[in-house]
Amino acid sequence: ERQGANDDIDLLAEELALLLSNLDIRVVGRIDQRRASPDPATFIGKGKLYEVKALMESLGATLVVCNDSLLPTQLHNMRSILKAEVWDRSFVIMKIFEARAHSAEAKLQVELALCKYEIPLLKGLGWQMSQTGGGIGTRGPGETEFERHRRKLERKVVALQRKLEQVRRRRLNLRKRRKKTETQTVAIVGYTNSGKSTLLRALSHDEDIYCADKLFATLDPKVRKVSLPSGKLVLFADTVGFIRKLPVELVAAFRATLEEVNEAALLLIVIDPLDKDPVESLRVVEETLSQIGAASISRLIAVNKIDMLDNKEKLEAILERLAIHSGCDIIPISALKKINMPLLLKKVDETLRQGDFSSSLTGA
Ligand code: GDP
Questions:
Q1: 47 contacts: CB under 8 Å, gap ≥ 6
Q2: Does domain 179-362 have CATH number 2.40.340.10?
């Protein structure tokens, strides 16, 4: 961790643990480091690195994850001292995107990010090899092999970029032709840890998943069929979560993965009232939605985890600030304790019907 406020470090560490649990990786220990600036060779400093090594050995851990972006040399040095796999925050996030990307476009975008991530690592390695390869100016034994692999990756980047362009054009055409008769989708959007997947579980009954939804359940565990009060069947889809401190090089991959919400009939934005500034969270979500072209999709805002707020006035104040900011009704819920689920479904039902009505008027 870099120097910063304590609660920020805890919040970011908690988020990282959550991201890792999405990848079925369990966190068994944590070491914090404070420095004025990162060590250029090892990021956390050599002494700290040996502390990490000792902890790993005592806990039987096999992976070290640094909650920040590492330079290729730092990554390489950490790996060789720890004799273990080392990931940085960017890599974890890419793995999440990789798991969550469904559309061809999102998959390509993530592959592109992974290639671009690997190229400088190979450069770092090539440099290391040539250092150990003998006198100044001589080439290391492994260098040509790394070079070859790197050049292959660079060609792949160009090919991926070309493919992306084609897929993008095809998708635009496809969306125009898509029929209205398809089952409508409600996309659940929000920050990681806001409770999106808990909400998805709360809304869907297990028997539905087993029988009616078998096909979807096997295709995508993040999509569930739900029947609304009017009897209408819709799909609820969990989407890739917003991540705090998203590394800039991953913004494109994040947006492409999130762009799948463009297919939704309704966006359900889940806000965590325990956030430092819930209105700011909502603002970032809304801004990103407009950037991916989802600004015109109707939306509902749910404030989750109300069971955690004993202070009623505080909750009221948050609801009011969000309502003023968004101009929408805000629905207070608890996904975990299943509070206000019928109300939420009723609102979804109403909003979808309004949408159907206005599009039949405009003939859109
Ligand atoms: P996601 O990353 O948005 O999918 O969030 P999760 O559904 O994984 O939830 C993150 C954490 O918040 C988990 O520990 C949940 O148990 C917890 N959580 C979710 N909804 C609620 C809620 O309504 N009340 C409380 N107290 N905790 C919740």
A1: none
A2: no
Q: Which tokens hold the place of 138?
A: 């001589």
Q: Which of 65-79, 92-106, 115-129, 195-209 has the highest mean pLDDT?
A: 65-79
Q: How far apart are CA 231 and CA 233, in angstroms?
A: 6
- Domains 6-96 and 179-362 in one fold: yes
Domains of the chain, by residue range, sit at 6-96, 103-176, 179-362
Would you call 361 exposed, middle or buried from its count of C-beta atoms within 10 A (0-12, 13-18, 19+)? exposed
Most informative mutation of 11, 21, 96, 198 for ligand 1 (most atoms within 8 A of CB): 198
Take atom 15 of ligand 1 and give the residue whose Cα is closest. 195
CB 273 less than 6 A from any atom of ligand 1: no
Q: What one-character DSSP code corresponds to residue 339?
A: B
Q: Which residues pair with 266 in a beta bridge?
A: 186, 298
C-beta 192 within 6 A of ligand 1:
yes
User: In the sheet that 233-238 helps form, which strands lie side by side, from edge to edge?
Assistant: 223-227, 233-238, 185-190, 266-271, 298-303, 330-332
| Strand boundaries in the chain, DSSP class E | 63-66, 85-88, 185-190, 223-227, 233-238, 266-271, 298-303, 330-332
CA dist., res. 207 & res. 193, Å (int) = 26
Residue with tokens 């299943």: 338
Give the residue whose CA is nearest to atom 10 of ligand 1.
Answer: 193
CATH topology assigned to domain 6-96: Rossmann fold (3.40.50)
Q: 3-7, 118-122, 154-158 — which is least confidently predicted?
A: 3-7
Distance, C-alpha 18 to centroid of its chain: 11
What pLDDT digit, counting tens, does each position of 275-321 carry? 989 999 999 999 999 999 999 999 999 999 999 998 899 999 999 99
